[in-house]
């Protein structure tokens, strides 16, 4: 059973998630009355939420506690699972597993994973949470023959850790394509945004230590909560770079 302070934190985070950035939650006195708690207990929780970037305080007659919804930074330079980069930024990572199944791959997945027409994939659909707030919707597919029993594992954490610890697979690199899309009604419902809201679609093919494709995924990140970061190496104008490792393409 959660401690009273943790239960209070969850209630406040739920109200933050239901609101919009910039909206006023209330004054400290109003919130203490609303949540039936002492101002000292409330102040301690609000300080932690402010440090995490979920709220900010404004001093003065028109002041109070306001929703911030800080952005999560997704690095494009590393192959790392969502829980790891959320934890590195001070968030409590969570996962909601929506569906799992073994299914026949479509043509795009067959090509990405180098599969034949008679092969199957393990498909896992999950919503990723940061401090209880939906951040991304991911649909990941893996060659079923290579990972027997994968659906029997605990799928709430990092699948990369499962692949490494239970199957001896180490993700060595990933090819990613990023584009801006609008949320469908189902995607909007899963991510707690409005239909047609801006999302970042990251389509990824991950390769193992033997350079064989082991994962094909489509991750939809909330546009209002996500920023992308990449580290680029400079070589000087006199040095010929290898074939383009990063490109930007305009969608027609």
TrEMBL record:
<protein>
    <submittedName>
        <fullName>GntR family transcriptional regulator</fullName>
    </submittedName>
</protein>
<dbReference type="Pfam" id="PF00392">
    <property type="entry name" value="GntR"/>
</dbReference>
<dbReference type="InterPro" id="IPR050679">
    <property type="entry name" value="Bact_HTH_transcr_reg"/>
</dbReference>
<dbReference type="Pfam" id="PF07702">
    <property type="entry name" value="UTRA"/>
</dbReference>
<dbReference type="GO" id="GO:0003677">
    <property type="term" value="F:DNA binding"/>
</dbReference>
<keyword id="KW-0238">DNA-binding</keyword>
<keyword id="KW-0805">Transcription regulation</keyword>
<dbReference type="GO" id="GO:0003700">
    <property type="term" value="F:DNA-binding transcription factor activity"/>
</dbReference>
<dbReference type="InterPro" id="IPR000524">
    <property type="entry name" value="Tscrpt_reg_HTH_GntR"/>
</dbReference>
<dbReference type="InterPro" id="IPR028978">
    <property type="entry name" value="Chorismate_lyase_/UTRA_dom_sf"/>
</dbReference>
<dbReference type="InterPro" id="IPR036388">
    <property type="entry name" value="WH-like_DNA-bd_sf"/>
</dbReference>
<feature type="domain" description="HTH gntR-type">
    <location>
        <begin position="1"/>
        <end position="70"/>
    </location>
</feature>
<keyword id="KW-0804">Transcription</keyword>
<dbReference type="InterPro" id="IPR011663">
    <property type="entry name" value="UTRA"/>
</dbReference>
<dbReference type="GO" id="GO:0045892">
    <property type="term" value="P:negative regulation of DNA-templated transcription"/>
</dbReference>
<dbReference type="InterPro" id="IPR036390">
    <property type="entry name" value="WH_DNA-bd_sf"/>
</dbReference>
């Amino acid at each position: 059973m959660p401690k009273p302070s943790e239960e209070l934190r969850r209630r406040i985070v739920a109200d933050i998630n239901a609101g919009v950035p910039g909206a006023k939650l209330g004054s400290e006195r109003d919130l203490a009355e609303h949540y039936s708690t002492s101002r000292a207990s409330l102040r301690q929780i609000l300080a932690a939420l402010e440090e995490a970037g979920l709220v900010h305080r404004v001093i003065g007659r028109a002041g109070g506690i306001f929703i911030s919804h800080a952005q999560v930074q997704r690095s494009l330079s590393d192959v790392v699972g969502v829980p790891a980069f959320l934890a590195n930024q001070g968030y409590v990572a969570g996962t909601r597993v929506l569906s799992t199944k073994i299914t026949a791959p479509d043509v795009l997945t067959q090509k990405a994973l180098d599969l034949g027409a008679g092969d199957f994939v393990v498909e896992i659909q999950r919503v990723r949470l940061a401090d209880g707030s939906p951040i991304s919707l991911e649909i990941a597919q893996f060659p079923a023959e290579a990972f027997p029993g994968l659906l029997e594992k605990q799928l709430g954490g990092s699948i990369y850790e499962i692949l490494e610890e239970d199957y001896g697979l180490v993700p060595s690199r990933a090819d990613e394509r990023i584009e801006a899309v609008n949320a469908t009604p189902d995607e909007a419902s899963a991510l707690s945004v409005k239909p047609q809201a801006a999302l970042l679609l990251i389509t990824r093919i991950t390769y193992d230590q033997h350079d064989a494709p082991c994962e094909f995924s489509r991750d939809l990140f909330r546009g209002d909560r996500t920023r992308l970061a990449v580290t680029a190496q400079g070589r000087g104008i006199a040095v010929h770079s290898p074939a383009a490792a990063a490109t930007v393409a305009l969608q027609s």
